[in-house]
Amino acid sequence: MTAPATKAMGGIAAAAVALGVTQLLAAFVGPQADARTAVGSAVIDLTPGPAKEWAIQTFGTADKLFLALAVLVVIAAVAAATAALETRRVPVGSIAIVAAGVAGCAAVLSRAGATLVDVVPTVVGTACGVAVLRLLLSGRFTDAPPAGDSGPDPGRRLSLVTLGFLGVGALTGVGGAVLGRLSTSVSGDRNAFALPKVDVAAPPVPPTVQPQGVALPSFVTSNADFYRIDTALAVPQLSRENWQLRIHGMVDREITYSFADLEQFEVIEKLVTLTCVSNPVGGDLVGNAAWTGYRVRDLLAPAGIHRDADMVLSMSIDGFTAGTPVDAFTDDRGSLLAVGMNGEPLPTNHGYPARLVVPGLYGYVSATKWVVDLEVTRFDRAEAYWTRLGWSARGPIKTESRIDVPRSGQDVARGPVTFGGVAWAQDRGVRAVEVRIDGPDGEGDWQQADLGASYSNDTWRLWSYRWDATQTGLHTITVRATDNTGAVQTEDIADPVPDGATGWHSVGFAVV
Ligand SMILES: Nc1nc2c(c(=O)[nH]1)N[C@H]1C(S)=C(S)[C@@H](COP(=O)(O)O)O[C@H]1N2
Ligand SMILES: [Mo]
Hints:
Layout: H1 4-29, H2 35-46, H3 49-59, H4 63-84, H5 92-109, H6 120-136, H7 154-184, H8 187-191, E1 244-249, E2 255-258, E3 267-275, E4 286-295, H9 296-300, E5 311-316, E6 321-325, H10 326-330, E7 336-341, E8 344-345, E9 355-357, E10 371-377, H11 385-388, E11 400-405, E12 411-412, E13 415-424, E14 430-438, E15 447-448, E16 450-451, E17 461-469, E18 473-483, E19 505-511
Parallel strand pairs: 1-10, 12-19
Antiparallel strand pairs: 1-2, 3-4, 4-7, 5-6, 5-10, 7-8, 7-9, 11-13, 13-17, 14-15, 14-18, 16-17, 18-19
Helix pairs in contact: 1-4, 1-6, 1-7, 2-5, 4-5, 5-6
Ligand MTE binds near residues 232, 276 and 320.
Pfam families: Big_7, Oxidored_molyb
GO biological process, one term: sulfur compound metabolic process
Keywords: Membrane, Transmembrane, Transmembrane helix
């Protein structure tokens, strides 16, 4: 008899081999054969909206790492539990591996463009997993060794073999993932892409946008620091050669642009602050970049948009969709099909080779990355990805402000100190920022903060506030912004669902 704990370890080793072999073989068959991504994408698609929202708010840009770890933990737990129950007559563990394999095949086949060949790695991996489990639980390593055998004792021998299979699983898994990545990566294509020469440059950024004497985020967010939110488990690898943009629906003429076709259009550059609807009050799912690209208006014009159309449903190569009011593409705000971000080709995880950027709207209704399709339609006929899950069909950005300094719980020495943060209200612009500091004596008065120079109504505005800390004890700083229409940021607390969080950001700190 093998002990349950040993059986459980055997189950985990068998699962590792099944996953690893599948991953390695998939690297040779093609990206659609990657069962790991297929299952992960299916999990993302089947996860209810509120749970997705929780993951985005809790883990932000690390949400996919969390998903991957969570899935691995669940797989290991199920493999261990079922293997511990495996007996010769009722092979619970083996059945669990086969069931997982069937689910993996189903996930692979459910993906766009998948064929029967794509399930071969999963089938082979599953078979290897079952074989390993049966071998480890067969008793072959624990049965009494022949007399005179001076090898390690049976228990140790089994542990070593189990560890060996765990290693095989890890190596084939990591090796397969790396190989698969190398063979599909568009990083070479991206490196070879020289951004088109800009015809209409963005005004230069004056140094006065950045308040002095306080460590605030940079007015322009670097590509490396820019938040990333999307439903893509594996970043789509789309080369310029394979990219095209199809415009269809309620138009006089369908048009399909190749990447080279874009050369006929004027190249513009524009700074736009992007904001995620899932950003909680005080959160960091907001960033400001210089985008290079083409006016969506220019691309749409030759198609001839019907007068009764009011929405453009943009679609990514991976099936994500966003519904944007036609006006937001055709009015003067300068919505872009962006190919460059901060003077570089778009990073692959920000949409290489092309994405949409629409000033004034949350990303979920506008900022489609890896965009390949624009369907001109109507809000009463089409529903985009997040709208189907309960988010609002329209997503104008709400006025918000954030405190970056001090950090929550920070100690502030007595004497002069400078606080600060950011405020945004695309595309109305920020006119004023006020702060209130409440101390041990009670509530303070609202005071005007100093503002960094206003760059444009489409970009955030940095603020700072000099304060003399005189009284020791616990304090709270609260901030609110006023946009250029004169509307003051609302104190009413709203959840990110369905159309963006509201409320005032406060931070507690101690004067010591
Ligand atoms: N293809 C695709 N594009 C997408 C998304 C997505 O899930 N898939 N998410 C949108 C959302 S919700 C936001 S907030 C922005 C974020 O853009 P970023 O990752 O470049 O910051 O991308 C938008 N574009
Ligand atoms: Mo978002």
